[in-house]
Amino acid sequence: MSMKRLGSRRAARLATILASTLILVLALAGVAIALTAGNVDGVWGDPPGTNPQEFRWCYAPDITDGPAGDPTSCSTSSAGIQNEPTSTLTDENQVRYGDPAVGFGSANRSGFGFNGNNDVGSIPADTPFFLGRFTHYNRPIYASPILTDISLDVTVSGLLCDDDSVPTEGSTQTFTYDITLDETNNNPNNWPNNTCPYGMTVPYNNPYGGCDDRVTISQVPDTEFTCPEGVRTVQILGFIPGDDCELAYTPPTSSAFVTAESSQNEACLWARISDPTNPLAITLASFEATGLADRIVVSWETVSELQNAGFNLYRSQNSYEVGERINTELIPSQAPGSAQGAAYLVEDLDVTPGQTYWYTLEDVEFSGSTALHGPVSAKVLAPTAVTLNDLSADSPATSAISGWMVLLAVGVMLAGFVAFRRMRTN
Ligand SMILES: [Ca+2]
Ligand SMILES: [Ca+2]
Ligand SMILES: [Ca+2]
Ligand SMILES: [Ca+2]
Fold first, then answer.
1. What is the residue-level pLDDT of the chain in tens, covering all 426 positions?
2. How far does residue 95's CA lie from ligand 1's centre (Å)?
3. How far is the CA of 417 from the centre of ligand 2 (A)?
4. How far, in Å, is the centroid of ligand 2 from the Cα of 161?
5. What is the pTM of this model?
């Protein structure tokens, strides 16, 4: 009898030890399931079509919380100066181009800077991290021809998989991104309706301001590396402008960055380490705005919503600002996590007849990552005798219809859309 009691006590003690070991193992496993990345360094490639006399590769100090500013040294012939012999893998690499309209020397040329994050650290898959700081040194220049695009080779060292093993292809991988520049003519009088395409932050001839430019970034093609948990790449989420943009992920990110003339325009590039087939966002089949007599109908349709939690819709009275959010709560995905798409329709009643509005759609992933689509524009039709009575009616701010009602509404309104589409602006 006593033997049996002792045995059960031992069994209980053993069970307790096993249970606490299991908890410890699970806790350790929870800590260990994260990727690791060390230093990020971005090197500028060859600029297609620029004037070699006006172009330079440069490096500048490693300043983590702001643009480096004036380059330390430049070369007209060697892209290698960005990492040799006195440049480092942690400083800011730059390209400079154009003939300065003010002053002289490379510091007065226009150009881009990229300073990678020196220590990314531990990050779970699909989680945004600060890749590096981007600056457009948008200086007044004369250039012929102008710079239209340039590649940025981003090398990430110290890559480790979830289990801290080195990826099959090695711990240092290079990911290539394409940066395009829409270097606009600064004189607003040279644009239709005297309107700069991306707005004008610094007034023209004040003394050297003018129409803002636009920088975009895209990923082509993906470099992949292999971990036990799967194939991975570094996906660009986009720009977040501002001087503290490296401190916290504050979406929305955008693949476009509008930059002011005669200014040092700073933005952070945020990225994530992900399965290359993991879509950054939803896939849109269509996104349209249609102006009616007293409202604008904004509709969109998705092909798939694999990562999608929902949408936000923004309205602006110009094409270059995202404007104000018009939905009070996230418009929920009708097919969250689904390979199937859905249709959406929002009626914006808070609009003025004769006015054109631009709408930008933002998708919000489960991870919190966001992406912008559009803008699309529509003009509220001018009032006619028939609709004057309707204008005095109270306009509820915004109404969102979803699910089967959307399909029904879309079907019913389809004939009307075809007629009205001919009258849309843009
Ligand atoms: Ca360097
Ligand atoms: Ca750095
Ligand atoms: Ca410019
Ligand atoms: Ca410009």
1. 333 444 445 555 544 444 444 444 434 444 458 999 999 999 999 998 888 889 999 999 999 999 999 999 999 999 999 998 999 999 999 999 999 999 999 999 999 999 999 999 999 988 899 999 999 999 999 998 999 999 999 999 999 999 999 999 999 999 999 999 999 999 999 998 888 988 999 999 888 999 999 999 988 778 999 999 999 999 998 899 998 999 998 877 788 899 999 999 999 999 999 988 776 656 667 788 999 989 999 998 887 777 788 999 999 998 777 889 999 999 998 877 777 778 999 999 999 988 899 999 988 887 777 777 777 888 888 755 433 333 322 333 333 444 444 444 444 444 343 333 332 222
2. 12
3. 52
4. 23
5. 0.67
What gap in Å lies between CA 121 and CA 30, rounded to an integer?
Answer: 16
The CA 206 to ligand 4 mean position distance, Å, reads: 13
Distance (angstroms) between ligand 2 centre and the Cα of 153 equals: 14
CATH architecture of structural domain 283-421: Sandwich (2.60)
Ligand number nearest CA of 88 is 1
Contact 146, 183 (CB under 8 A): yes
Domain ranges of the chain: 35-274, 283-421
Q: What is the dihedral of CA 119, 121, 124, 128, to 10 degrees?
A: -30
Gap between the Cα atoms of 359 and 13, Å rounded: 65
Q: Give the closest ligand to the alpha carbon of residue 157.
A: 2
Q: Tell me how far the alpha carbon of residue 330 lies from the centroid of ligand 3, in angstroms.
A: 37
Distance CA 32, CA 51 (A): 51
Q: How far is the CA of 245 from the centre of ligand 3 (A)?
A: 23
Distance of alpha carbon 209 from alpha carbon 211, whole angstroms: 7
